[in-house]
UniProtKB/TrEMBL annotation:
Organism: Wenjunlia vitaminophila
Domain Myo-inositol-1-phosphate synthase GAPDH-like residues, every copy: 213-317
Identification of the protein by name: Myo-inositol-1-phosphate synthase
GO molecular function terms noted in the UniProt entry: inositol-3-phosphate synthase activity
Family: Belongs to the myo-inositol 1-phosphate synthase family.
Highest taxon of source: Bacteria
Length: 388
């Protein structure tokens, strides 16, 4: 999929710049896009490949060109083989798309660790932005979308004026004139120090924290309780996961950032957050597989007390990758037709969206309306208020 820069239709291609480009999610994104675009596998899980989006003018999967930043050094083909060995990817797929993995790997540049780098924030942002701009220029891309799929970082203290790594990458995306997606709970564009820059950026952006499992169920179940006038007394949950996410979320600060989005769905749909907590346990042996368990205590007619329990077992990378591809295509098309600023219409994909409803059915309706508007192919400017 990463065609030579002098390919005749190169000006119609879209760049995908992944922050955390050698992680499990990013590797699955690149591998899955190549497999789907070439017809090796069906587009299962890709909402943008369903009929309502056929007329939206989205960039083709075959037109996506990948690159990114990461602080890790392992090559993508090797990472894909590891994921196949763990059962995340089909066994023979890494070899089938090896050329695409190598092409993406060649476009990955060293990331930054602010505490280990002597450069100031303006220099770091300029260096990261230069990498993105060089990628777009060399491949003569129509545009690029920067997507944060790196490990969750703890939320910075309110009194700390420094930009965390996720916000440095977000600032670099804006400086490079790229659309931006924060698929993680990390701060990204939500840092108060970037508010003015984001408002003046002239690009579309969306986030944060992809809704792939436990919160996806909450976004369906919480409206059910509210609509049926059932009183939720308590809602507790436990997550067991391994891999990079498990290790990152073992940090209490990172776990707190993750759980904030889970609580928001309950608050928005129930009017308050019921008793109970969400616990996240790092179980390295699980790798990319996770189990999420919820226990909902609720009260019905005449005070009858009842319980609903759910168990979600899935592979986080396989759940996240198609959503990332959806978001890239939607944000790229929004950028093409002139939409700017936060896109609440994309709340369907996030635990902590930029406005809009929190119930999944309503979010899906807003997404379908957005798909229709993208098909109009008309410049729209910053019409965030209209979209709400």
């Amino acid at each position: 999929m990463s065609l030579p820069a002098d390919t005749p239709d190169s000006e119609h291609r879209t760049g995908v710049w992944l922050i955390g480009a050698r992680g499990s999610v990013a590797t699955t994104v690149v591998t899955g896009c190549a497999a789907t675009a070439s017809g090796l596998h069906p587009p299962t899980g890709l909402v943008t490949e369903t009929p309502p989006f056929a007329g939206s003018g989205l960039p083709a999967l075959s037109s996506l060109v990948f690159g990114g930043h990461d602080t890790a050094n392992g090559p993508l083909p090797k990472r894909a083989e590891e994921l196949a060995g763990a059962g995340v990817l089909p066994h023979d797929l890494p070899s089938a798309v090896r050329d695409e993995l190598r092409a993406a790997d060649a476009e990955i540049r060293p990331g930054v660790r602010p505490g280990d780098d002597t450069r100031g924030e303006p220099e770091l942002v300029a260096a990261l932005s230069a990498d993105i701009e060089d990628f777009v220029r060399r491949h003569r891309l129509a545009r690029a979308v920067v997507v944060n799929v790196a490990s969750t970082e703890p939320a910075p203290a309110a009194t700390d004026p420094r930009l965390p790594a996720s916000s440095l990458y977000a600032a670099a995306a804006l400086r490079a004139g790229c659309g931006y997606v924060n698929f993680t709970p990390s701060t990204g564009l939500h840092h108060p120090g970037l508010a003015d820059t984001a408002a003046a950026s002239g690009v579309p952006y969306a986030g944060r924290d992809g809704k792939t499992g436990q919160t996806l169920l909450r976004a369906v179940l919480a409206p059910m309780f509210a609509q049926r006038a059932l009183a939720v007394r308590a809602w507790s949950g436990t997550n067991l996961l391994g891999g990079g996410d498990g290790a990152a979320l073992a940090d209490p600060g990172a776990a707190a950032a993750k759980n904030a989005g889970k609580d928001r769905v309950l608050h928005d749909n129930l009017g308050s957050v019921p008793q109970g907590e969400v616990h996240i346990d790092d179980v390295p042996a699980l790798g990319d597989w996770k189990t999420a368990w919820d226990h909902v205590a609720f009260e019905g007619f005449l005070g009858t007390r009842m319980v609903l329990q759910t168990i979600w077992q899935g592979c986080d990378s396989a759940l996240a990758a198609p959503l990332v591809l959806d978001l890239v295509r939607l944000v790229a098309r929004a950028h093409e037709v002139g939409l700017t600023g936060p896109r609440p219409e994309l709340g369907f994909y996030f635990k902590d969206p930029d406005g809009g409803p929190s119930a999944l059915a309503e979010q899906y309706g807003a997404l379908l309306d957005f798909a229709g508007r993208l098909g109009d192919d008309r410049p729209a400017g910053n019409d965030t208020e209209e979209a709400r």
